[in-house]
Amino acid sequence: MGTVVDATNKEGNGAVLGDKNVTVVFVLGGPGSGKGTQCANIVKHFGYTHLSAGDLLRAEQKSGSENGTMIQNMIKEGKIVPSEVTVKLLQRAMAESGNDKFLIDGFPRNEENRAAFELVTGIQPAFILFFDCPEEEMERRLLGRNQGREDDNIETIRKRFKVFLESSLPVIEYYNSKGKVRKIDAAKPVEEVFEAVKAVFTTPDDKV
Ligand SMILES: Nc1ncnc2c1ncn2[C@@H]1O[C@H](COP(=O)(O)OP(=O)(O)O)[C@@H](O)[C@H]1O
Ligand SMILES: Nc1ccn([C@@H]2O[C@H](COP(=O)(O)OP(=O)(O)O)[C@@H](O)[C@H]2O)c(=O)n1
Ligand SMILES: [Mg+2]
Q1: Is 160 assigned a ligand-binding role in the annotation?
Q2: ipTM of the complex
Q3: Are 40 and 34 in contact (CB under 8 A)?
Q4: How many other β-carbons are positioned within 10 Å of the β-carbon of residue 95?
Q5: In which residues is a ribonucleoside 5'-phosphate bound (predicted)?
Q6: pLDDT tens across 60-88, in order?
Q7: What lines the ligand 1 site, CB under 6 Å?
Q8: Closest Cα to atom 11 of ligand 2
């Protein structure tokens, strides 16, 4: 059964994706678990469009939007931006992509994100790719990421870990109870992690 995405474009001119059937995979895992890295690989092999909620928020902040200062403050504190903002950015990016298969990376990060996306788009994810990685390894990766991000400092990293445990893990548990989580050992080298990811995307049940 298909899902109708009634996405609204920048000018608010209504349905852009029309009645396209869309497939959404949520890509979750702690900060530094390798979500962005693996999404780039999945895009090359499986024809998905990668939408990183964090990247969309950073772009919105830099574009001088009225929400710019709020977004910057939330990111600096490792807090989760209200869903109203993030869901709109995701909807717009989906509509503009022209694709019908999406990896939504770093979203939903809390129950509010999850419920708002479902309510507004009516979309249920095909499955959840969960990158499981110990905190020490994630910390090491974030401190070495070198992308000039304002939140990759030890103070903010600790806050992001706390938010992950308190707000994001319960969302993963929610989907796990529905049998939708595909858990990957993300502590291994990039190529090995991708082998496990490929297996998920080529398993018949999940061939989407
Ligand atoms: N399997 C891995 N082993 C070692 N380093 C990794 C691995 N996956 C990603 N990295 C590195 O760790 C950092 C965080 O990865 P990234 O994909 O940005 O994670 P996330 O989007 O989950 O925060 C980057 O510098 C990336 O190059
Ligand atoms: N759904 C989301 C995703 C990110 N964010 C914000 O953006 C920050 C960076 O998210 P990200 O996904 O780019 O970070 P990583 O997990 O990739 O390191 C988060 O710590 C939040 O402050 C958000 O508010 N809501
Ligand atoms: Mg990322």
Answers
A1: yes
A2: 0.99
A3: no
A4: 19
A5: 58, 79-81, 106-109, 149, 160
A6: 999 999 999 999 999 999 999 999 999 99
A7: 29, 31-37, 141, 144-145, 189-190, 193
A8: 54
